[in-house]
Specification:
The complex is a heterodimer of chains A (110) and B (113). By secondary structure, chain A is an all-beta fold. Chain A has no helices and eleven strands. The chains are: A mainly beta (110), B mainly beta (113). The interface between A and B is medium-sized, with 24 and 25 residues.
Chain lengths: 110, 113
C-alpha cells in the first residue's frame, strides 16, 4: 500500500531564504508526482508535475526533483516571499488516484 | 473562467438531511475525480469517472454516498442521511489524460450540525 510522508509538518523561515520541502513515498511504482499549494480554506493549485521518467521540473522560483529509487521528492523554493506562505502538498499517482501527504505548512516571515 | 468549478462553495445542513454537490470540470477533460479533505490532512480519494463511467470507488464511499456523471460532463455527489463525520471539504478535480496534471476546483465545504 502506497504511503506518502511529508517532513517537516511546519516550517517558518525569514523572507529571502531558500528552502527545501521533502516528500517520501513507500512504493516506487508511480506514474508521476505532483506538488500542490493550498491556501487556508481554499482549493488546491497545481505547482509542478514530474513524470516517472523525469528527474526534475522547474517553474519560476520553484524546482521539484524526483528520485524514484529512493522514494523521494523535494520542492526547492528560491528567494522565499511572504506570498509563498501556504500549505504545500505532494501527491503520488500510483494507479487511478492520487495518494497524498499531509502537507507542510510554510510561513515566510517578512 | 475555464477552470474547474464547484457549487455550492459552502453548505450547512442538519444531521439526517440529504445534500448534493455539483462539479463542472474543464470542458475537454474526460477524467473527473472526487476527494474529501478534513482539517490538517491531505485529500482522500472517493471516486473517479472516465467520461460517464464510474471506474473506481473508495471504501470510504459508503452506500450513503452516490456520484454520477451523466453525459460525461458535469458530476454530482450526493450524501444521504448526513452525519457529523461527513463534515469536510469536498474537492473535485479533472484531467485530460491518464498521465496529465489534475486540476482542482475551489471545493465545497460541508458542515453537518
Amino acid at each position: 500500500k502506497q504511503e506518502v510522508t511529508q517532513i517537516p509538518a511546519a516550517l517558518s523561515v525569514p523572507e529571502g531564504e531558500n528552502l527545501v520541502l521533502n516528500c517520501s513515498f513507500t512504493d516506487s511504482a508511480i506514474y508521476n508526482l505532483q506538488w500542490f499549494r493550498q491556501d487556508p480554506g481554499k482549493g488546491l493549485t497545481s505547482l509542478l508535475l514530474i513524470q516517472s521518467s523525469q528527474r526534475e521540473q522547474t517553474s519560476g522560483r520553484l524546482n521539484a526533483s524526483l528520485d524514484k529509487s529512493s522514494g523521494r521528492s523535494t520542492l526547492y523554493i528560491a528567494a522565499s516571499q511572504p506570498g509563498d506562505s501556504a500549505t504545500y502538498l505532494c501527491a503520488v499517482d500510483s494507479n487511478y488516484q492520487l495518494i497524498w501527504g499531509a502537507g507542510t505548512k510554510l510561513i515566510i516571515k517578512p | 473562467d475555464t477552470g474547474v468549478s464547484q457549487n455550492p462553495r459552502h453548505k450547512i445542513t442538519k444531521r439526517g438531511q440529504n445534500v448534493t454537490f455539483r462539479c463542472d470540470p474543464i470542458s475537454e477533460h474526460n477524467r473527473l475525480y472526487w476527494y474529501r479533505q478534513t482539517l490538517g490532512q491531505g485529500p482522500e480519494f472517493l471516486t473517479y469517472f472516465q467520461n460517464e463511467a464510474q471506474l473506481e470507488k473508495s471504501r470510504l464511499l459508503s452506500d450513503r454516498f452516490s456520484a454520477e456523471r451523466p453525459k460525461g460532463s458535469f458530476s454530482t455527489l450526493e450524501i444521504q442521511r448526513t452525519e457529523q463525520g461527513d463534515s469536510a471539504m469536498y474537492l473535485c478535480a479533472s484531467r485530460a489524460g491518464r498521465f496529465n496534471e489534475q486540476f482542482f476546483g475551489p471545493g465545497t465545504r460541508l458542515t453537518v450540525l
